[in-house]
Amino acid sequence: MARLTRIAFGVAAALTLCASFSAAVLLSAAFAPTSVCAATAPRPPITLKLIPFGDTRKAQMVDYSQRHYHQHTWRLTAPKVIVLHHTAGANWQSAWNTFAANTAYDSGTGRLEKPGVSAHFIIAKDGTIYQCVRLSMRARHAIGMNWSSIGIEFVQEPRSGRNGHWMDQQILNRTRQVRAGLRLVRYLELRYGITDRNVIGHAMANNSPYFKDYTGIKNAAGDWFAPEVRAFRARL
Fold first, then answer.
1. Confidence band for 39, pLDDT divided at 50, 70 and 90
2. Would 139 be classed as within a structural domain?
3. Which of 16, 114, 161, 183 has the fewest Cβ atoms within 10 Å of its own Cβ atom?
4. How many domains, in total, are found in the chain?
């Protein structure tokens, strides 16, 4: 009889332990943070419209990166930031033509430098996403940020008497364009592990923890200010 009692107590203890373990597993699953694998951000439709970026332009980017970042490379590896811009033109073709022309540009150093300006993507007013530069390459779109960031240009022209805030708001109110931008940014965030706080506007770049420029220059940009970027992030 004593032996049966000991067996019964042992079974009861085992059952209690199993129940406690199951409850702990369920509880931890309920409160565990969602993993990156569980998130989904499919690649949006992207039209490949690459600008010429051959050996000459790569060599120019190597020289630019050496001067500004003390890095001897044209490659973009493990980007940490997404920088939002607007084109200051009425259509995507004008921005693409500017990028493709590879015109020397003075960023404030007092010297004309190549490569010319460019960005990885242009988003047209109708929501079409054009990729201009491969994501493995650096594009010259924001002072101090080209070594660590992806640049996205939204088509938006200026208007006399209106400032950059107004231009940003036009984009935010243009449904197809902003939806395309949100889809692209979600996809890039998931692909590279970029956080919402590192989705910034060109006007915010100087305050980024990833900003660096050894020539001492800074951005004087009037596109995508903090209030509009916060509104954009809130939709992600």
1. low
2. yes
3. 161
4. 2
Task: Indicate if 214 and 146 belong to the same structural domain.
Answer: yes
20 is in which domain, residue-wise? 2-32
Q: Are 200 and 82 in contact (CB under 8 A)?
A: yes
Specify the pTM.
0.84
Res 28 pLDDT > 60: no
169 phi/psi in degrees, rounded to 5: -65, -30
